Amino acid sequence: MTSPTPEAASRAALAVLRGALAVHGIVLPSLDLHLMSYAGSCGTPPLIALGNCNPATALRLAEALAPGAAG
Question: Which domain of life is it from (predicted)?
């Protein structure tokens, strides 16, 4: 069995993160692969760009990450 390509590893991590955020009702519309690192050919996984969000989403994200947060 071969290991996943760097792109596949980043896409899988992106999907897991998107799902984990959704459990908490958090949607980051610009969550995606970072285009500049995705375009590179150095063999490392592309970065994941968390993107921008409004203050309400930032607060929900902070609450979800807080110690003792229900999950």
Answer: Bacteria
